[in-house]
Amino acid sequence: MKNELPIGIIAAMELEAEGILSKMENVTKRTVSGITFSAGKLNGVPCVTAVCGIGKVFAALCAQTMILEYRPRLILNTGVAGTLTDALSVGDIAIADRLVQHDMDTSAIGDPVGMISGIGKIYLPCEEAVAKRLSLAAAGGGIRCLRGTVASGDVFLADAERKKSIAGHFGAIACEMEGAAIGQVCYVNGVPCGVLRAISDGGDGEAALDYPTFAGMAAARTVKVLEAFFAGESK
Fold first, then answer.
1. Is residue 2 part of a domain?
2. Number of other CB atoms surrounding residue 13 within 10 Å
3. Which residues, at least 6 apart from 51, have a Cβ–Cβ distance to it below 8 Å?
4. Are 197 and 101 in contact (CB under 8 A)?
């Protein structure tokens, strides 16, 4: 018997979600706290998709509301990111094994940089089986991907020195603005979490120029991976 609880999909921007929304069937919409949740099916699998808005607060608000209102069995965060490694180029996919909030810093009172107060963790785990299946979905579509740590913070990273610092301190492969906040909400609620991000820019001094040029292409790559992931769910 198939699990009828939905899979949640959260994107920060319409650009990142529109490809998935266009492929969903039997869609019903509901707006809660200013966020529109679209429930339906993708490849025959129940899902609920939402555009949360940019940044960690909107991401956490969306994830918690989705959990309370729809009881998803898994939440996937999708979208674009800046690369923190030479191993990922524009159009490649970063898949999170774990997440970190690079701008969480209570080191002035003796805590390690990145440690989340209240749960005492720096790194938030992603579901291993989900990360593996996302990787297989990317590889099956001929898209190069890399698994590793994805860093989140309330900053559009466009500085080579800060990029180097985040990559070096946390061992991160990509940087964005929502994934670790969603990961924290999932962690405290006991909901499995997965994050996939297509690279839209280099996270350096050229990022502000590269992002508008490549973001649409990168977002389309995530749609291709998610479609393959959901096709596997429906079997």
1. no
2. 16
3. 11, 12, 13, 14, 16, 17, 35, 36
4. no
Distance CA 232, CA 75 (A): 16
Q: What pLDDT, in 10s, does the model give residues 55-71?
A: 999 999 999 999 999 99
Q: Identify the CATH number of the domain in which residue 147 sits.
A: 3.40.50.1580
Q: Is 152 inside any structural domain? A: yes
Is the pLDDT reported for residue 232 higher than 90? no
Give the Å distances, CA to CA, from 171 to 73, 81, 123, 219: 29, 16, 11, 24
**Which residues partner with 101 through β-bridges?**
152
Instruction: Tell me the chain's radius of gyration from C-alpha atoms.
Output: 17
Q: Give how far Cα 185 sits from Cα of 88, 169, 179, 180, Å.
A: 27, 23, 10, 9
Domain that includes residue 124, residue range = 7-233
pTM higher than 0.70: yes
Residue 115 in tokens: 């440690």
Residues labelled as active-site residues: 16, 201
Tally of domains within the chain:
1
Is 69 a domain residue?
yes
Residue type, 15: L
Which of helix, strand or coil describes residue 188? Answer: helix
The secondary structure of residue 6, as a DSSP letter, is P
Confidence of residue 200 (pLDDT cuts 50, 70, 90): confident
Ordered DSSP codes for 189-205: HT--EEEEEEEEE-SST
1 located within any domain: no
Tokens for 160?
A: 């080579």
Query: For residue 216, what pLDDT is reported?
Result: 83
